[in-house]
Amino acid sequence: MALDTISISTALRNYLAEKALSGQALTSGQLRASLVEQGFPGAELREALFNSTQPAVVVDNLPAESFGRQPGKDAAPVADFTLRTLITSVGLEVFGYPQEKSGALFHDVYPIEGAETTNTNAGRVPFALHTENPVLPRAVRPEVLALCGINNESGTETMILPISRLTARMPADVRAALESPIFTFRQNESFEMNGYAIQRKNMVILRQRDGFDEFRWAAAVNHLQSTPDGDAALNWVKSIYEDLCERVVLQPGQAVIFNNHRCIHGRGSVQGRRWLKRAYGISPSPLLSTSGLIDIWDALAQPALDHTF
Ligand SMILES: O=C(O)CCC(=O)C(=O)O
Ligand SMILES: [Fe+2]
């Protein structure tokens, strides 16, 4: 089985390329309305992401970023606009955190010198399957992630596993353990918290919501010790997840968008040049500032949020 792919029309691609470079500042509402008018398949994407057991879609025939740009040095306005288009088209807002990448809304993903052997998106060694920002409460975790290819000379695979595929094979005792509040999460290294580190104890990894299984999974190294049953359940997941996942080599003009509560994702090794752009999407919320930021300190201090998942 491969991931579903939606290929947009060439007329739409040309429209997006022109808008991306027009310098026109559109609100989300204006952009959404113009996408509907142009026939962008936002409703189809939304249906897949929120109402199906395969909540990950590859979008093809998007405008490609111009050649010769360098990650970390040059802007990538076409890729940024593509990500904004995808996320806006499904009714969500692009957002970031002041404590991650200085509040950037669009993140450069490429191998960084000195980080080659880290289990992060800046590494070259395989990056284990994970949920994005699992240490944070659900209300401020990305609901969807979108990744857009700029250069993938290294032919690196992005791996995506819909959780329903995992739970369909899961023994009852593993499920019971993953639904027990016995797991600890800690923050990703990409967060800058004045030297503090967030750790969240007594959390479950798996639960049902709105009729779908949701998963909260740190890349292998970020789960601190659990109980023996918990550790056995973690090992069961790790023994099977790579065999079950889908793999896509994102090329220029291709993107993938997926539900971050209902999929885990990761990446193969990076041997040559590679550059993706990444953005997070979330439903409109009072926690979101007008510039699209969610302050982690504020979110963690909110007594009204559900901090249990
Ligand atoms: O590079 C990729 O394909 C995915 C990396 C990743 O997990 C991320 O940037 O969140
Ligand atoms: Fe990730």
TrEMBL record:
Keywords, sorted A to Z: Antibiotic biosynthesis, Oxidoreductase
A GO MF term: 2-oxoglutarate-dependent dioxygenase activity
Residues of the TauD/TfdA-like domain: 92-280
GO biological process: antibiotic biosynthetic process
Keyword Lipid metabolism set for record: no
Cofactors named for this entry: Fe(2+)
Domain of life: Bacteria
Listed InterPro entries: AlphaKG_dependent_hydroxylases (IPR050411), TauD-like_sf (IPR042098), TauD/TfdA-like (IPR003819)
Keyword Phosphoprotein: no
Protein name according to UniProt: TauD/TfdA-like domain-containing protein
Organism (species): Paraburkholderia pallida
